[in-house]
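User: I'm preparing a small set of examples for a lab meeting where we compare how different chains pack in three dimensions. I only have the primary sequence for this one, and I'd like the structure in token form so I can line it up with the others. Please keep the answer compact; I'll paste it straight into my notes.
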Amino acid sequence: MNYKEIKTLGQLKKSGYTPQSVKEEIRKNLICKLQKNEETFQGILGYEETVIPDVERALLSKHNILFLGLRGQAKTRMARQMTNLLDEYIPVVEGSEINDDPLQPVSRYAKDLIAEKGDQTPIRWVHRSERYGEKLATPDVSVADLIGDIDPIKAANLRLSFADERVIHYGIIPRSNRGIFVINEIPDLQARIQVALFNILEEGDVQIRGFKLRMPLDILFVFTANPEDYTNRGSIVTPLKDRIESQILTHYPKNIETALAITEQEADIAEEQRSRVKISDLLKRLIEQISFEARNSELVDKKSGVSARLSISAFENAFSAAERRAIINKEKETQVWISDMIGLIPSITGKIELVYEGEQEGPYQVAMNLLDKAIRAQFINYFPNPDTLKKKRGQQPGEENPYRPIQAWFDKGNTLNLFFHTKDDEKVQQLYKVDGLHAVVKKYFKHANEKEAALLMEFVLHGLAAFSFISKKILENKIEFKDLMGSMLNLGNSSYQDEEFDGEDFS
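Assistant: Understood. Below is the structure token output for the 507-residue chain.
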């Protein structure tokens, strides 16, 4: 249909245009996409086998939808992408506030205009991007905001009585007619406001200040909610929930690979940063592991959830930490080191809600614990598990502990200080001072280049500290590695996990 040439109701009738509801329109376009094997929701990763099929089934059933899930689970993003399933353009009566269909008008304005002008009634074409309405539910949202109210200024200007239907100022829901309307965090909406939605969802009646209007609004409603809200701030009233046909549960990424893809996609890294700073796959996995550890931590409130935004913010901060160091040191390029992860702390503390025990420990310490747990979890994917080596008393010659030379070097009273702002070359030189450190890396990563080997050497130190093989203490401007037993004797310098150990573990 050539929408550019059709400008009146008469021309529209001649074109053979047939009205259809927004849900029928979405259903038709969704079927076309599925038949062509096209991607329905672009950039939504990790939902291919779970959430997206549920959404597609709901849309094929012409259902209103409730997305139920913790924060940062792409609920609103999916709702916004539903506009891609609408027709590119639809005709509306020119001047209509509620996008009246020229062949099926519902407002008094549109009916009067068509009665007056007939086939000469002007029409305009509305793009699908304009057929989307969204409202964040807050306690101060009123019925007038959503549905409408009497406008005394309009009544005065048009010299109309308050009994005249034309004095009504429509709210955001009627203005979203023939489109998609989203209410985010629906439990935060006061119960009396939720009640006002009953008839709109079921019968299509709109009641405004005594006006009983029969307006069959044509809207696909999408609601989002966080399970936490049901207990903390409010709830969805049962009759409203009953009128929402499909409730779809969202979730966090189920594996590191999916999480990595999401972070890479969403992180806003300047091209200048990417050209100056390189980040290894190891660091990427460590950053994602922090989120996984936070979601499983007893110190973090599980009901609040840990958003994917934590990993994204941490990823961006990792680049910035390395970039800042390179700028200070006047280095043209650098890589993200394990020690740069101290710069991720603000990204973590701002994205987690702590339970009482976590609050007692403090957000900074909880964040540090999560870093250590992430290192611990990823370490065994790259190197032998130090815990299993601890427990194997009397290994065979072929089962020699590869970390023993490193421990022995620290046992002699040696200390390694890795300053946060050290130049890359200087850091590499410092790492090579530790006996056996390079040998461990070369044993398990024979083909690693110099920079990769250096990063892995640093990783080994942090890993051994996480497993309580050596001591690690984070000071104001450096990370200090030393003998664990010596650190135990000087409790002021200790930084080890609360684990049981004895002298035989370190022999």
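A couple of notes for your slides: DSSP finds 25 helices and 16 strands in the chain. Residues 393-398, 491-507 have pLDDT under 50 and may be disordered.

User: Perfect, thanks.
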